[in-house]
Specification:
By secondary structure, the chain is of the alpha/beta class. The chain folds into two domains: 112 residues, Rossmann fold; 72 residues, no CATH class. The chain is built from nine helices and four strands, in the order βαβαβαβαααααα. The longest helix is centred in the C-terminal third of the chain and has 14 residues.
C-alpha cells in the first residue's frame, strides 16, 4: 500500500512515521510512504490543479492532506480539504492538528532527547501535560525549546542548535502513539478517518 502526504509546512516530514504507524495498525500489507512537498510543485491556476499534479508525480492508494488548524476551527480546515478534493477520484484522509503538528511530538521525552542527539541526557525539559498540549498557544516554540534543552549544550552554544532541523527526527524514535489517541481529539479523528479509508470502520 502506497500513500502520499501533501502539505505546505516544514513539519510535514515529521508526520510520515505517524501516518505509517496509523496504517500498519489496520493492514498487513507493506506500507510505502511518499511526501509531496507542495512548495516544490510548479505554480498552478488553483489548488485542485495542484493536487492533480501532486498525484501525477506521486501516485498512491491513499492521499493524506496536512493542514494545521492554527487559529481556525479544525472542522473548517477539513471542509476546505473536502471541497478541493470533491472532483478528484482518490481516497483521502485530512490531517488537521488543533494548532500545529508539533503538539503531537511533545509527549515522548526519550524521543525528544534522542532527536536532540543526547539520548542519555537528564536536563529538565518542562514538557506540558499530555492532556493540555492541544491548548498550547505555540507548540512549535515549546518543542524547539525542549529540543534545545535536551541537547545538553551550554547556554552559550544553545543559540546555534538547529532545533528546526531536528524536529522531524522525533517521530522516528517514537514506538507508538496510542497515548495521543486516548487524550487528543484531533488525533482520534485522524485514526477514525484512517479506518474509514481502509474500510475497517
Amino acid at each position: 500500500m502506497k500513500y502520499t502526504l501533501v502539505g505546505d509546512g516544514s513539519s510535514d516530514r515529521a508526520l510520515l512515521p505517524i501516518l505509517t504507524w496509523s496504517l500498519k495498525r489496520h493492514t498487513t500489507q507493506p506500507v510505502e510512504e511518499q511526501w509531496a512537498d507542495f512548495g516544490r510543485i510548479p505554480r498552478q491556476q488553483n489548488t485542485e490543479s495542484k493536487f492533480r499534479v501532486a498525484l501525477d508525480l506521486y501516485p498512491c492508494d491513499i492521499l493524506f492532506v496536512h493542514r494545521d488548524a492554527e487559529n481556525q476551527p479544525p472542522e473548517r480546515r477539513r471542509i476546505e480539504i473536502k471541497k478541493v478534493l470533491t472532483q478528484i477520484s482518490i481516497k483521502y484522509v485530512p490531517v488537521v492538528p488543533v494548532r500545529m503538528t508539533e503538539a503531537w511530538l511533545l509527549f515522548d521525552q526519550l524521543s525528544i532527547r534522542a532527536a536532540a542527539g543526547n539520548p542519555r541526557g537528564v536536563e529538565e525539559l518542562n514538557l506540558p501535560k499530555l492532556d493540555t498540549i492541544e491548548n498550547i498557544p505555540d507548540p512549535r516554540a515549546t518543542l524547539y525549546k525542549a529540543l534545545t534543552l535536551a541537547s545538553g549544550l551550554s547556554t552559550r552554544r544553545r543559540s546555534k542548535f538547529p532545533a528546526q532541523e531536528r524536529v522531524h527526527l522525533i517521530s522516528h524514535y517514537v514506538d507508538r502513539y496510542s497515548a495521543l489517541e486516548s487524550l487528543l481529539t484531533a488525533f482520534r479523528i485522524l485514526q477514525q478517518d484512517v479506518r474509514v479509508a481502509l474500510g475497517v470502520d
